[in-house]
């Protein structure tokens, strides 16, 4: 990530023995877990990933993270959190975990050509917003293209906005955006919504929201910032252009949990199960609310949570996971 964090860039200072805590992932949950684990003197190692920092690295200004009255840029917030964790002894490996073995303790995590041993693991690998996959979307991401209405809606006061998707998220975000936008146009690839009846009814009865059916976004138009979209009717093949100050892509998220498939319990969509959600629970009723089905492995943030998905809730869960890991290590006599 190229951040200047002298003194805590740590591959060199990490010893090759078993680490008490290894955190996989470096968004708000991973870095908060690292901060708490570091302050508990557990010298956590953070496998921060090649593209470190999580989803906030893709945003511009964050106005809803408590403590920043004037807002903070997403990447800056992540740099601050990383520095704060480093200050207490967290160390970082700027590479991706490519495999994990949670079948025996110490656990092992493969990173590049290294194998890292861990008495406990905190999984905070997050989720990724699904994207349309067109070049103009990438080019204008953070410049009018957004995957988060809650984060970015308020920057588009009085402007016409387009939202892509037909699920509950798209309806919820469309309704939220009506607070700011002059108009909200939902573009959906079919002629029926996937969203629940109640969300559909709310969207249909809001007079700021209109729908363009059977259509996909061929191109996001804009020079430096979004000015509109080119749409393609998937039935007729016709293309049309619509004016838009912002394009919100709300076609779902995917949890980054493939590394743990077959080892950690997850739901049908790949979100990790923790605490009382577990069906293979090694400690029913335990206070270790972020425990996974593998004793000594904890999980936090968007790889678990598909409901709230906020930086602050992820950070809160990361804190919980670190406290759980600390308690478990103590109970397990490590
Ligand atoms: P979702 O239910 O998977 O819906 C994704 C939508 O995006 C679908 O309409 C899908 O179209 C469309 N889509 C997917 N890929 C696309 C592509 N490449 N191009 C264009 N359109 C594409 O995801 P979600 O809306 O994020 O919801 C996720 C889960 O959270 C759901 O279980 C939902 O009920 C829940 N949720 C609930 C609430 C609430 O109740 N308030 C709010 C948010 C989320 P198709 O319909 O054609 O597949």
Shape by Cα distribution: elongated
- Fold-level CATH name of the largest domain: FAD/NAD(P)-binding domain
SS strand fraction: 25-35%
- Small-molecule components bound: NADP nicotinamide-adenine-dinucleotide phosphate
Residues in helices, as a percent range = 10-25%
Count of DSSP H/I helices: 7
Radius of gyration using CA atoms only: 21 Å
* Assigned CATH architecture of the largest domain: 3-Layer(bba) Sandwich
Total beta strands: 19
Q: Any idea how many domains? A: 2
How would you state the average pLDDT, rounded? 93
Give the CATH level 1 class of the largest domain.
Answer: Alpha Beta
Largest sheet: 7 strands, mixed
Helix/strand-derived category reads alpha/beta
N-to-C SSE series? EHEEEHEEEEEHEHEHEHEEEEEEEH
CATH homologous superfamily of the largest domain - what is it?
FAD/NAD(P)-binding domain
List segments where confidence is low: pLDDT < 50 over at least 5 consecutive residues: 1-13
